[in-house]
Amino acid sequence: MKQLGIRLRTLREGLGISQAKFAEIIGSTQSSINRYENGQATPTVELLRKYADYFDVSMDYIFARCDEQQGKLYQAKPPAGNNPELAKFVEMCFDPSSPMNDKLKKTLIEMLGEVKA
Fold first, then answer.
1. What is the pLDDT of residues 57-113, one digit of tens each?
2. CB-facing half-sphere around the CA of 57: CA atoms within 13 A
3. How far is the C-alpha of 1 from the C-alpha of 115, rounded, in Å?
4. What SS3 string covers the chain?
5. Which of 12, 27, 57, 60 is the Cys-Cys partner for 69 at CB 3.0 to 4.6 Å?
6. Residue 78 in contact with residue 110, Cβ under 8 Å?
7. Which positions ≥6 away from 25 have C-beta within 8 Å?
8. Are 83 and 94 contacting, i.e. CB atoms less than 8 angstroms apart?
9. The pTM is what?
């Protein structure tokens, strides 16, 4: 549970939120947040979901099953992945031999996912 507490503290401190303020946000107490972060108590599943939702991370990340915040089991499926024509367009936009190819494709797909038609 020590790793869980470290993750919870890191998430909270990463946004510069005090224990008291975060407790207010998720409906807990400052002393409870302190105990969770120091590995002296284990938060309920409901509270862990609130952490995951607030910080927009996976439960896998919170439980230190992976270091990627989107999670070990979760894979984003951008709209281009479901649209063969759009995926082909994205592929044609970039020279496969370019060292930036993968990053540029990912950025374009993310941008296209943010634009709602």
1. 888 889 888 888 876 555 545 555 566 776 666 666 666 776 767 777 787 777 777
2. 21
3. 40
4. CHHHHHHHHHHHHHCCCCHHHHHHHHCCCHHHHHHHHCCCCCCCHHHHHHHHHHHCCCHHHHCCCCCCCCCCCCCCCCHHHHCHHHHHHHHHCCCCCCCCHHHHHHHHHHHHHHCCC
5. 57
6. yes
7. 17, 54
8. no
9. 0.58
The residue with tokens 């972060």 is 37
- Tokens linked to 106: 């990912």
Structure tokens at 29: 């107490």
Q: What are phi and psi of 24, to 5 degrees?
A: -65, -40
